[in-house]
Each structure stands twice: as structure tokens, then as C-alpha cells.
Amino acid sequence: MDKDIGARKKIAADVARHLAQAGAPAPSLGQLSEGTTTSRQLIRYYFDEPSDLLLAVCDQLAEAYRMALVQGVAGMEGPARLGLILDFYFDLVEGNAKPRDDRAYDAMMAYAGTSPKVRAALREQYTLLGQLLALEIKIVHRHLSLDDCAEISYLFTCLMYGHWKLVASLGLAEGHKRITRRAVDRLIHLYAAEGSRPKDWPRPWAQQD
Question: What b-and-e string marks burial along 42-70, b requiring 16 or more CB atoms within 10 Å of the CB?
């Protein structure tokens, strides 16, 4: 028997409203242990609640990036250093691959909607990336203001995360990274050519009131 199409649409709309308000359901410690080599009992011994474990996962993911990037830029400076940093986040550095963690970060972003701890940790990580990148851009493009550089770093982070989200969750070809990476260079050149940003715009990386 065919199911009522109207009822299906009503249920879908109801669930959509709920997800818009509540976000993705937080996982249990038992669910997080599934597929790992760690038992649920051992996880429960070291972590009191799922958000504590997810916070540790955020730190682990960030540390992998820090170590790989520090090794990659050692001894470099100027445009070459900036170029390598930008290339690294789009996995374009031969011999120094970006961590293969895109689906993990995508999951963390979903959990951030319901976990204040995860949300704060990811916001801090991405903000720190933006601040460091803004300084690297300023070193190479000295005539740009710090706000301009911060704005570029914010746009870079949006493009970078958005690209890998589409690859990890929707299955787009990873080769799209070359399109997005070139767009970053075009953005920098555009900012360098156009000058200062409007003074009444919000400061990049400001938190929601």
C-alpha cells in the first residue's frame, strides 16, 4: 500500500524544524567506541561524558596539523612560506600530505551544534589558524591592513573547510582543491589591488554577541 505522501512531507518538515533548532544528536560513549579498538568500558573510565572525549578528539586533530605544518615550513620565509601554507591546507604539498581527517572534522562540526565544548574548541582552532595566516599574509603583502589580511584569512578558511566538507560528505572529486586553491590567490591579488575594506564592516573572526 502506498504511503500517504502528504504525511511523509509533514513528518520530514517536522524533523527539519527540530534539527534546525537542536542540531545533530550528540553521540553516546558507546556509539563513539563502535569501530574502534578501544572498549566502551575503557572509554568510560577515562572520559565522563561524550563531550569530553570529543574535545580530546578536537585536540588530537589540531595537533596533527600543527606537527605536519611546522615540519613543512621549517627554514622557509616570505612568499614561498605563505604559498606552502596555503598549498598544505589544500593537500598540494608533495611529500607533506595533509592529514586524512576530513570526515572526522565534518563529524566534529556536526557535534559542535549540540556541544558547547566542541563548538568553543573548533572556534578557537579556526580562529587561531586565521590569526596566524593573517600575519603570514601581512608579511608578504605589507601594504595591506591587518583587517584586510584577517578578512582574507577568514575567506581562506571558509573556502578550505567548505571544499573538504563537499569532498568528505558529498563525494565530490578531491581534484576540486586546485580550483579552490587558485581562488585564494585571486582573492589575495584582488585585495592587494583594491585597497582598504569598508570601515563599518565587522572585524573578521569576531564571535556572535
Answer: ebeeebeebbebbbebbeebbeebeebbe
